[in-house]
C-alpha cells in the first residue's frame, strides 16, 4: 500500500480555499500512485477554530467540506481530521475526529481520546472524549489511527488514565498513523520523537506522525512530520515550516520505499526560532488580509530584530520604520536606526515627538502643579509615539508590530498603550538574551542589525543617560530567574535554593506579578517556548501574590 | 443537628486574611450553637486562582490553611472547599474538593465529579474528575455532599454522562449539601432554583445550596445561597452581594428551625445588575489595593453611568472625572458633564485637548500629505484623551475606568488605546439599551445622571454633528441582533429567519467579527450576562469568518 502524507497551511474558517487545497493535494497524491492520503488534525475547519465551533453554520460548512472531499475519494482513500457532531443526548456537541473516506463516502470515524487541557490547549471546552477502540481495515492493512495527544499518555507530565494505543494494539494493527496539530516550541521536536519511538519500541510497528503547519495568530505549527520504521529508526522527516507531500510504500509492517528522500537537516535552535517568527508574521498578515507593517525604530536591538524579521516575512518594501526621536534620544540612536533602514531596505519616516510632548506637558501643568517629573513623563513619550504609529497605520493601512521582548513583558518594563501597543507581539516570547542571539543569527551572512545596536548598553532613552540596568538586574541573571519562575513554574523558595540571591528573586517575582494587569491587555504574542504569555499562562489579576 | 451556612468574600491567594475570616465565622457559628458550618467551593485558595494552582508554594499555603481550620474544629465540624492534591500517578495534579473537618483533623474528602469547561470555566485545566461516591456520616446524619456543577447534569444544555446525586442517593442520605462558586448573571438565580428543585423533587430531601460571594476581576459572585425543605419549598435565601451566616436545625430529613428569618425580597433585574457592578468595582479596587478611580466625562450616558457607579462603590471623593472638550464638543456636553459632577459630588478637572491634537496634526502633516481627514483624526482625539487620563492616573495613583458599553465593544465602535483604555471595563457587558435602564435606575431617588444626558441622541463628538446613528443601526435593533449572535450564538441565517433584514444582519455580524482584534486588547469586563466578552467567548483572530 502506498501512503501519502500531507502538510498544508489552512486558514481557519476559509472553507473554500481550504477545501480546494485539500482536493489539490488529494489529486496530486492519487496521480502519484497513492492508495491512501493522510492530512493532519482538524484540517477541515482549522485547529483551533475555538468558539466558532459553537455556531451551527460553521459546523454545517465543515460537513459540506467533508462531503466534497469524500466524493473526490474514488480510487484513493483519505484520512483527514475534522470536528464531528456527537449526536448523543449526554455528551458535548463535538468530537475531535479523524475521518476515513473511501469510495465516495465516509467509511469510518475515529475520535480523539486524550484531550489536552493545559497550556494553550482547552479541548474539553469543545470535545467529548472517545471510548471506542477499533482499527481501520483498508485493503488488507490494519491501521491503528490516533489523534495527536492520544499517544502522549506516557510522555506528558500531566498523566492520563487511558492508553488508546494499547487498546488499538489488541486489534492487531499493521501500521500506526497519528494525525496531529502539534505547535512549535524550542523543545517540542525532540519530545515528539521520544513520544513516537516509545510507542514504536513497544508495538514494533511502522508509524506515520502527520503534523500540521502554519501560524494562527499566536500559535505556530512547524510541520516536520515524522515517518518511522518498526525498528524505531526515522525513515523521513518532512519539511519544517513549509507545505509538503510525500509518499511511502508499506508492505508487511515495513516501509519498503520512499518516493522523495530529501535528507532532513536539523537546524540550530535559533534558526528554528527565526523560521517560526518569520512564518508567524507572514501568516498573520496573509490570513488577515493585510500587506504592510509599521513599527517604531529606536535604534535599539528589539525594534531592529523585529524590523529585520518583518522585512524577511513581508518584503522590505512593505515595512515602514518610524524614527521618533525625543530630547533624550542619543545621536547614535538615530544613526543606528538609519543604518538598519539602509541595511534592510525598508521604508522610513522621521517624526520628532517634542511638539506633542511639550503640548501635553503644558496642558497637564495645572493638574501636575507641585509634582516632580517622574515615570509619568516617560510614559507620555511612549504614548505619543504610539499615537503617531497608530495614526500612520490608520491613515495608510499599516498593521503595527509590537517589539516588546519577553524579559520586559515579564517585569512590566514597558508602557501600556505606549510601546506595549501593536497588533502582534513578534518577540514577546523571546527573552532579551535570546534577542541578541537572534540578531547575530540574522547577521549570519552579512550585517543587517548594525553592530552598534548589538554592542551598546540597552536603554529606553526616556530620561537623560537612562540604562535598563538602572532598574533591572543584568539580563542574563534576570532571564535565568524568569525562566525558572515562568517556564518551569518554580516557587520563590525553589529558585533561591538554586543559588539566586533572595532579595533579587523576591523583587523579580514581585515585578512579574505586578505586571499581570498590563500583560492582560497585550497583543497576541508569537509562541516559541513551552510557556508563552497569553492563552498558555492564565493568572488572576486581583489576587494577592506571595510578593 | 444545627447547620450553619456562610457566604464570605475571600481574596484569591490572601491566605492570612482568608483564613482569619474563615476562623471568625467558624467560631461565630460555634458560639451560636452550630454542629456543622459549611463554606462554599474553594474558599481556601480562592475560586479561581487559575495558574497559581500550578505553584507548589500556593498549594502548600492551601494545605497550611486547611490544617489551621481543622485544628479549630473542636466541638464543631466544618465543610469547606479547597484544592486537594491527587497523589495519583495517572491523574491531573488536583481535585476540586470539599473537606469534612472535625475533631481537629480532616475526616473525609469529597471531590467534584462534573467539571465545567464552557463559558468562563476551564476546570479540566486544573482538576481531575471524581469517580468515588459516598455520603458523609456525621452524628447520625448522612450528608450527600456535592460541589457546584455536580448537580447540573440534568439542567445544563451541555450534558454530562455522570449523575453524582443519583450515586449518592444509593447511600441513603438525610440531607443534600452543595457547595458552590456560581457567578452572577441576569438569569442565573432562576436557573439555580430550577436545578435545586429538580433534585429535591426527585430525592425528597432538604437541601442547602451554599454559594460564594465577591468579585474577582471580571467574575462576580452574588451569594444568595438557597435553603430548601424536602417538599422543594424555599426555607430561606441568603443575602445578595453580601456576607451572611445563618443557622438551621435539621431533624429527621426536615428543616425544623431557622435562626434568622429575613424574608428575601427579589429585586428587579436592573437592581441586581446595579448591585453586581458596584460590587465589581469595589472589590477590584479593594483587592488590588487602590482607592481612587479616574475616568473621562464626555457628557454622554456611558461615562455618566460609570461615574455614578464608581461614586457609589468608592465614595465620590475617590472619583475623578476629567472633562476633555475638543473643537467638536457641543456646549451641552460640557454642561451635562458638569451637572453630573455636581450631582455625584466627584472631583473633576477640565483639560481641553486642542493643543495636543494640533501639535500631532502638524507633526503628522508631512506623512499625511494629500490625504483627506478621516477616522485617523478621530482616533487621535480619543488617544490624546487616553494619554491625559493615564498621565493623571500615573502621577496621582488613580486607576482608569473604561466606559465602553457592550454594543460598541461588539461592533468595534471605539478607539484602541483611546476610549477602549482602562484597567476595568465597568459596563462592557451592558448593552446600550440597558445602559439607559441603568441610568433611570440610578436616578430612582433623584436626579444623578442629568436628564439631558439620558434624552439627547448619542454621539462620539469626534467630528461636526456626528451621531452614533450615522454609523450604526438604532440601538434597540442593534442590541437585539447582537444578543442573538453573541449571547444565543445563532448563525446569520437563523437571525434572518427571525425577521431581521438580511443586509443589516450581515453588516452587524461583519462588524462584530472585524472587531475581535480590538477586543483582544480590552481590559477585563465585569460579567453580568451569560456571555460576556473576555474569557467566556474565545474567538480566533486571523480566521476567515462568514462575513
TrEMBL record, chains A, B:
Q: What is its EC number?
A: 6.3.5.1
Domain annotation CN hydrolase: ranges:
1-257
Q: Where is the active site?
A: 41 (proton acceptor), 112 (for glutaminase activity), 148 (nucleophile)
| Protein purpose | Catalyzes the ATP-dependent amidation of deamido-NAD to form NAD. Uses L-glutamine as a nitrogen source.
Which NCBIfam families would you find in this protein's record?
A: nadE, PRK13981.1
Q: Which HAMAP family match?
A: NadE_glutamine_dep (MF_02090)
| Name by which UniProt lists this protein | Glutamine-dependent NAD(+) synthetase
The species this protein was found in: Olivibacter domesticus (Pseudosphingobacterium domesticum)
Amino acid at each position: 500500500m502506498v501512503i501519502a502524507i500531507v502538510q498544508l497551511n489552512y486558514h481557519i474558517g476559509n472553507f473554500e480555499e481550504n477545501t480546494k487545497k485539500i482536493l489539490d493535494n488529494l489529486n496530486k497524491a492519487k496521480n502519484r500512485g497513492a492508495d491512501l492520503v493522510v492530512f493532519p488534525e482538524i484540517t477541515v475547519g482549522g485547529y483551533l477554530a475555538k468558539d466558532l465551533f459553537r455556531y451551527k453554520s460553521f459546523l454545517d460548512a465543515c460537513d459540506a467540506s467533508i462531503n466534497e472531499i469524500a466524493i473526490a475519494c474514488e480510487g484513493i482513500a483519505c484520512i483527514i481530521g475534522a470536528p464531528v457532531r456527537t449526536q448523543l443526548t449526554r455528551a458535548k456537541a463535538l468530537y475531535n475526529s479523524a475521518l476515513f473516506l473511501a469510495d465516495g463516502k465516509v467509511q469510518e470515524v475515529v475520535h480523539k481520546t486524550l484531550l489536552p487541557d493545559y497550556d494553550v490547549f482547552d479541548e474539553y471546552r469543545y470535545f467529548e472524549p472517545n471510548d471506542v477502540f477499533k482499527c481501520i481495515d483498508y485493503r488488507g492493512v490494519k491501521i491503528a489511527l490516533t489523534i495527536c495527544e492520544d499517544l502522549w499518555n506516557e510522555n506528558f507530565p500531566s498523566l492520563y488514565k487511558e492508553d488508546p494505543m494499547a487498546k488499538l494494539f489488541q486489534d492487531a494493527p499493521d501500521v500506526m498513523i497519528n494525525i496531529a496539530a502539534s505547535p512549535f516550541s524550542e523543545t517540542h521536536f525532540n519530545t515528539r520523537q521520544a513520544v513516537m519511538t516509545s510507542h514504536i519500541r513497544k508495538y514494533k510497528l511502522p508509524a506515520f506522525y502527520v503534523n500540521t503547519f502554519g501560524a494562527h495568530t499566536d500559535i505556530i505549527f512547524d510541520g516536520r512530520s515524522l515517518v518511522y520504521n518498526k525498528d524505531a529508526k526515522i525513515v523521513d522527516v518532512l519539511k519544517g515550516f513549509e507545505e509538503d507531500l510525500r509518499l511511502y510504500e508499506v508492505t508487511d509492517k515495513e516501509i519498503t520505499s520512499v518516493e522523495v528522500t530529501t535528507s532532513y537537516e536539523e537546524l540550530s535552535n535559533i534558526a528554528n526560532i527565526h523560521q517560526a517568527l518569520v512564518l508567524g508574521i507572514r501568516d498573520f498578515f496573509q490570513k488577515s488580509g493585510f500587506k504592510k507593517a509599521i513599527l517604531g525604530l529606536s535604534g535599539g536591538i528589539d525594534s531592529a530584530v523585529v524590523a529585520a524579521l518583518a522585512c524577511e516575512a513581508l518584503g522590505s518594501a512593505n515595512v515602514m520604520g518610524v524614527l521618533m526621536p525625543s530630547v533624550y534620544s542619543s545621536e547614535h540612536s538615530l544613526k543606528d536606526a538609519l543604518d538598519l533602514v539602509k541595511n534592510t531596505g525598508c521604508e522610513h519616516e522621521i517624526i520628532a515627538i517634542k511638539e506633542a510632548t511639550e503640548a501635553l506637558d503644558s496642558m497637564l501643568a495645572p493638574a501636575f502643579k507641585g509634582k516632580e517629573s517622574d515615570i509619568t513623563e516617560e510614559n507620555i513619550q511612549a504614548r505619543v509615539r504610539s499615537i503617531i504609529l497608530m495614526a500612520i497605520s490608520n491613515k495608510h493601512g499599516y498593521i503595527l508590530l509590537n517589539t516588546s521582548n519577553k524579559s520586559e513583558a515579564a517585569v512590566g518594563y514597558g508602557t501600556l498603550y505606549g510601546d506595549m501597543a501593536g497588533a502582534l507581539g513578534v518577540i514577546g516570547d523571546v527573552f532579551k538574551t535570546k534577542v541578541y542571539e537572534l540578531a547575530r543569527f540574522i547577521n549570519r551572512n552579512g550585517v543587517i542589525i548594525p553592530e552598534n545596536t548589538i554592542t551598546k548598553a540597552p536603554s529606553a532613552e526616556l530620561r537623560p543617560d537612562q540604562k535598563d540596568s538602572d532598574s533591572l538586574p543584568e539580563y542574563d541573571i534576570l532571564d535565568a530567574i524568569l525562566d525558572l519562575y515562568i517556564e518551569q513554574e518554580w516557587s520563590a523558595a525553589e529558585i533561591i535554593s538554586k543559588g539566586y540571591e533572595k532579595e533579587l528573586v523576591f523583587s523579580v517575582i514581585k515585578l512579574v506579578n505586578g505586571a499581570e494587569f498590563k500583560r492582560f491587555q497585550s497583543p497576541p504574542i508569537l509562541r516559541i517556548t513551552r510557556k508563552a504569555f497569553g492563552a498558555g499562562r492564565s493568572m488572576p489579576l486581583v489576587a494577592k501574590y506571595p510578593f
